[in-house]
Amino acid sequence: MGRRIVIIGGVACGPKAAARARRRDPEAEITIVEQGEHVSVGRCGIPYYVGGKVNDIEQLFSSSVGIVRDADFFQGVKNVRVLVKTRADRIDRARKQVHVTDLTTGATETLPYDKLVLSTGARPLRLNIPGVDLNRVHNMWSLSDAKAIRDAAWSGEVGHVVIIGAGLIGLEMAEALLEADIPGAKPEITVVEAMPHIAPSFLDPEMAALVTKHLEAKGLHIRTGELVQRLEGDETDAVRRVVTAQGTYPADLVVAAIGLAPNVDLAREAGLTIGVTGAIAVNQCLETSDPDIYAGGDCVENMSLINCRPVYTPQGSVANRHGRVIGNNLTGMRDVFPGVLGTVIFKVFDFTVGRTGLTESQARDSGHQVETAIVSGADHAHFYPGSGSVVVKLIVHVPTRRVLGAQLVGEGDVNKRLDALVVAATMKATVDHLANFDLAYAPPYNTAMDILHHAANTMRNKLAGLARTVTPVELKDRLASGDNLVVLDVRTQPETEERPAPYKGVTHIPLGQLRNSAGALSGDKTIVSFCQVSLRAWEAQRILEAEGLSNVRFLEGGLAAWPY
Amino acid sequence: MGRRIVIIGGVACGPKAAARARRRDPEAEITIVEQGEHVSVGRCGIPYYVGGKVNDIEQLFSSSVGIVRDADFFQGVKNVRVLVKTRADRIDRARKQVHVTDLTTGATETLPYDKLVLSTGARPLRLNIPGVDLNRVHNMWSLSDAKAIRDAAWSGEVGHVVIIGAGLIGLEMAEALLEADIPGAKPEITVVEAMPHIAPSFLDPEMAALVTKHLEAKGLHIRTGELVQRLEGDETDAVRRVVTAQGTYPADLVVAAIGLAPNVDLAREAGLTIGVTGAIAVNQCLETSDPDIYAGGDCVENMSLINCRPVYTPQGSVANRHGRVIGNNLTGMRDVFPGVLGTVIFKVFDFTVGRTGLTESQARDSGHQVETAIVSGADHAHFYPGSGSVVVKLIVHVPTRRVLGAQLVGEGDVNKRLDALVVAATMKATVDHLANFDLAYAPPYNTAMDILHHAANTMRNKLAGLARTVTPVELKDRLASGDNLVVLDVRTQPETEERPAPYKGVTHIPLGQLRNSAGALSGDKTIVSFCQVSLRAWEAQRILEAEGLSNVRFLEGGLAAWPY
Predict the structure, then answer these.
(1) pLDDT 10s per residue in chain B (564 long)?
(2) Is A183 helix (H, G, I), strand (E, B) or coil?
(3) Is the pTM value of this prediction over 0.95?
(4) Which terminus of chain A, N or C, has fewer Cβ atoms within 10 Å?
(5) Are residue B267 and residue B254 in the same domain, yes or no?
(6) Which residues contact B72 (CB under 8 A, 6 or more apart)?
(7) Chain A interface mutation, best of B306, B383, B407, B430, highest count of A Cβ atoms under 10 Å
């Protein structure tokens, strides 16, 4: 075919598109233009480089067998020309040319193309406050940011770190720095988030609260609902303090991770359509508004598989899948990238946190009629060593019973339940499907009924009106407002001693005695039962209702999901 | 409603049905009749009790908070009457009565029912050979079997164990006994299997061979294709030898785990329909041929979700889900159990082994037009500590591109990929869906493209005729038959030193030099390229084809999936 393909941007989507195009078409002339020093970078590994789990930064742009994926590699193995430290200045769509500048020599070049790919990526949103130019104030994005932060943290001069932004990158950085094996005294680390809770774009409040509790138990300081107003430095222009409306925090190193913006300047200047999210608009074939120009990776917007709306979800995994679709389409296919769920996973200390699809608030904001269920349980059989707890929040579309989204938190195996839910939500599974999936069971790997089965069944019980619940948020609010509730602990005596109820005035009747003791409970007040995971509390609801009490509810998820 | 419900069998499905019926109907009279001593038993934990990971057998019939689920528990908490050590002798369908005998006192009782549930379970197939009545010859099924085997293994008198049957239970037992912390010299353990490879009902030969290699590396002796002919004992009638047509193996303890048969005598005598698998036939509501009698658990046959054929898949997980559906239907619902995939997972030492859906041989035997792909890779980013290898075999229906089944083996996170495939196969996902699932990615949990994405893409490349491969079995056979191949190792020099190619006469050209060295390769012979996981070998195929060589193939899965 002998086509000339030019790709602007060499981090993830670009190299993938180049490699795929090459495998399909041995004749094409393929050129990657990359402004930075490196191509094919595993940027998601940066927090682990900063924290010292990855010691050699080269690992982030090497293959798994240690081959550095540089320009020579791409030329020798892929027969792809790579121009690093080269900036694309302008796209001339009429002439089908890209004007580029070699940033080392200043030389310019004009690259003709038959097909062009924009994989220009994203950039970190910059703080727009006084003090951002002080020393030791860094955005967290590039390899050079990572080196600077790591060098500062290891310098022995950093007693306090403030991370601005409690999103994915901010939280991963907080974990990395706290776990880093830095000689001398560990720095104190404070995470400041402007929104009312951490991870606001992918966790609902009660799930975020569970994560916050874990972060604080590990020694992080979390300040939410605080907008940073300015950074203050010393006479050497090194940052020393972070000031919010609520307080002042000492800071010898500030890491800003407040979000990403797509790099769309080239596309906009070339007259390509920019979508409502501010990222480049593409169709399902990842074509821009110019059919000779494809775009993928962090510079484009995606379509949500849940509600078909455009979303901006910059992620390395998505960028790689984009690259393959573009590589196919550059070489004569009409391949389709169906869309995304906004799946997110991250590790913070002993917890894994994941979400896919819509959060409850996103689903309600979209106008959907939703029901939710919070369920907690063990990730594998209690009698097999090493089992851990998982809390699942399921969000379901009531009219269709479809799974719209889920959030999972805990030290147990969140990872596997999340991917099962990804597949389920993509395939438009209902909660009834979810209750019956023939998931793998053996004691080292699962309980006989998976926690996803329990979550689905709880949801079905709620939808049928059989299970009547209060959520953790509801119970917290009702307790705070002085509602006259009977809070009923149905755990065993040893359990109540091991983990006392987090609220005074709890009535304690072990489940085994409840049938004989129901008469002692008044029928006037709302009774809210709980246990460790609320399986027994659910049983208690049904027992008390059978005894004629009409206003009984159980606490969703039990103590295992109680974050307050 | 006040219905009388009698449930025969109290291990898994029965108690679940009782508990669910009770939650839905506070008035029903519910009675469980159980022949054994215990109810609600986590029998899947037995190998871990035998091996000592679970020390107290009570844990297997206790809840996660340590409550023993005995008759008193069921009466007090569930208001369910449980008759243990009680045998159901006969069902009188005309009078709607069950005749039972108290095995302790010999007293008989007649239990009237409105609805009856058969959850009579399964029993181990018994060896029908000379010597089975010798001492220290045990089936592996009940808690008393488990106690006897554990006592024997710990007695200090067992130097050699032979396990007959390399299915799920046999292999779990082999692992448990080899890992058991038995004082003194570890027993030598031999597993004898009559079929040509281990786990014959859920693994294809090359996947079984990978597991066998691991088992042997851990010190187990595996003998396949050997039918046991007789057991020989000493003057005390203790077993001492296992004799097959091929050899004689010393044995101071023999554990037989050759399969299960459903307990259908009661059902058959009552005139209920028995299915083609020999288990009780039920419809999707789990009704037997008598609409007042439900059946579930190990005594019934299931429908395969892949091809709608009846299958016999006795499993605790399925039994629990059956129980819930039956509990619903006993109390006025028309709930449906959709069917099974035959999902299996088990742990053997550092390996997890899983399968769902059909194996290749089962799919071909069913008459499907299938394509397969074997792919290996890391379970998470190579630069994050602790990554492990996973080998996936995907089986796809060519006309519809649907996933018919999958097998997974390795020390990496098999568990999560298996459940994602379970959901995918249930929802009738195609290989194109699989290639695009928005699976969770962060370096501790995954690679940017999941191994399932790679497997799907390899399959798509094969279906498109772009990827041309040989499977491990094919290469082994072609090498054995003296085919004149060029076997081309495209790994780096250090890799070839660390893990030499498992075959002499291999040509070694690192991928980076292949474009310049292609001329050295003859076009007459078939070239089979390989590397560690065959990503580079696939690249090599395309490079050599671009250089004009027409008969190039790569080894599926690379060395990581090479079991020979």
Answers:
(1) 448 999 999 999 999 999 999 999 999 999 999 999 999 888 888 899 999 888 888 888 888 888 888 999 999 999 999 999 999 999 999 999 999 999 999 999 999 999 999 999 999 999 999 999 999 999 988 889 999 999 999 998 999 999 999 999 999 999 999 999 888 888 999 999 999 999 999 999 999 999 999 999 999 999 999 999 999 999 999 999 999 999 999 999 999 999 999 999 999 999 999 999 999 999 999 999 999 999 999 999 999 999 999 999 999 999 999 999 999 999 999 999 999 999 999 999 999 999 999 999 999 999 999 999 999 999 999 889 999 999 999 999 999 999 999 999 999 999 999 999 999 999 999 999 999 999 999 999 999 999 999 999 999 999 999 999 999 999 999 999 988 899 999 999 999 999 999 888 899 999 999 988 888 887 789 999 999 999 999 999 999 999 999 899 999 999 999 999
(2) coil
(3) yes
(4) N
(5) no
(6) none
(7) B383
Q: Same domain for A317 and A279?
A: yes
| Segments of A331-464 assigned E as strands | 344-348, 351-357, 370-378, 389-397, 402-410
Domain residues for the domain of B158 are: 137-258
Whether B212 and B280 share a structural domain: no
Residues of B in contact with A317 (CB under 8 A): 438-439, 441, 446, 448-449
- Residue B104, domain CATH: 3.50.50.60
> Do B287 and B356 sit in the same domain of this protein?
no
Q: Does B95 touch chain A (CB under 8 A)?
A: no
**Chain A interface includes B321 (CB < 8 A):** yes
Beta carbons of B320 and A449 less than 8 Å apart: yes
Residue finishing a domain among A202, A234, A256: A256
What is the amino acid identity at position B266?
L
Q: Taking CA atoms, what residue in A is nearest to B545?
A: A26
Which pair of structure tokens corresponds to residue A147?
A: 């080196």
Query: Which of B62, B440, B539 lies closest to A415 in CB terms?
Result: B440
- Any idea which residue has 């050129």 for tokens? A31
Task: Give the closest residue to A406 by CA, choosing from A166, A203, A200.
Answer: A203
A window 361-420, beta carbon within 8 A of B: 378, 381-385, 413, 415-420
Q: Are B71 and B79 in contact (CB under 8 A)?
A: no
Domain-embedded: residue B345: no
Closest chain A residue to B77 measured between Cα atoms? Answer: A512
What is the rounded CA–CA span in Å between residue B353 and residue B406? 11
Q: Are residues A513 and A435 in the same domain?
A: no
Nearest CA in chain A to B317: A448
B204 occurs within a structural domain:
yes
Q: Is residue B92 part of a domain?
A: yes
Tally of domains in chain A: 4
Tell me which chain B residues have a C-beta less than 8 angstroms from the C-beta of A79.
515
For chain B, counts of helices (H) and of strands (E): 16, 30
A79 and A22 part of one domain: yes
Mutation pick from A119, A421, A423 vs chain B, by most beta carbons of B within 10 Å, is A423
Q: Do A445 and B352 touch (CB under 8 A)?
A: yes
Residue among A44, A285, A299, A308 flagged as catalytic: A44
CA dist., res. B514 & res. B318, Å (int)? 52
Same domain, yes or no: A401 and A458 = yes
* d(C-alpha B52, C-alpha B49), whole Å: 5
* Pick from B190, B175, B193, B186: nearest CA to B153: B186
Residue A142 maps to a domain: yes
- As a whole number of angstroms, the distance between CA B327 and CA A447 comes to 20
Domain boundary among A434, A463, A492: A463
Q: Which long-range contacts (CB under 8 A, 24 or more apart) does A508-513 make?
A: A511/A536, A511/A539, A511/A540, A511/A543, A511/B77, A512/B67, A512/B73, A512/B76, A512/B77, A513/B76
B118/B267 same-domain check: yes
The answer to whether residue A464 neighbours chain B at the CB level (below 8 Å) is no
